[in-house]
Amino acid sequence: MKFRVSIRKPLIALAMLTLVGSVNADEFVNGFLAAQEHDYVKAAKKWEPLAKEGHAQAQFFMGMLYHSGAHGVINEKEAVKLYHKAAENGNYLAQEYLVVGYQEGWFGLKKDSKKAQFWQAKLDKNNNP
After folding, report:
1. Which is nearest to 82 in space by CA: 100, 68, 99, 61?
2. Domains, in order of start, for the chain
3. What gap in Å lies between CA 32 and CA 129, rounded to an integer?
4. Helix (H, G, I), strand (E, B), or coil: what is residue 69?
5. How far apart, in whole angstroms, are the C-alpha atoms of residue 6 and residue 11?
6. What's the pTM value of the predicted model, to 2 decimals?
7. Distance of CA 11 to the CA centre of its chain
8. What torsion, rounded to 10 degrees, do the Cα atoms 31, 20, 88, 52 define?
9. 55 and 28 in contact (C-beta within 8 Å)?
10. Distance between the two ends of the chain, CA-based, in angstroms?
């Protein structure tokens, strides 16, 4: 059991490096590992600058932090703004969030079937090139 735990984080980090594929991969992975340790304040410190630079995964994860308040600040409006930025930058999870958000009226969004369809079309295009 101890062996499994000791290799788990490096494997997750390696997987995240291949997902991210950018110069900022180390900072993103460091934020991810901090979040794995439930240190969301540290994760936010790593991800926030990346999100401001347009890093889609960091934008999505920062949105989640704002949505949940895990790093100390609940701000649904900022979360939705970050979900939109991440979705526009191709993050499929953010696109899924927006599809459901507009379908169901979640995350402070008003129900809007046209916007839900717009994001669903983007999601479908990204998943079926």
Report:
1. 61
2. 2-127 (1.25.40.10)
3. 28
4. coil
5. 10
6. 0.79
7. 19
8. 40
9. yes
10. 40
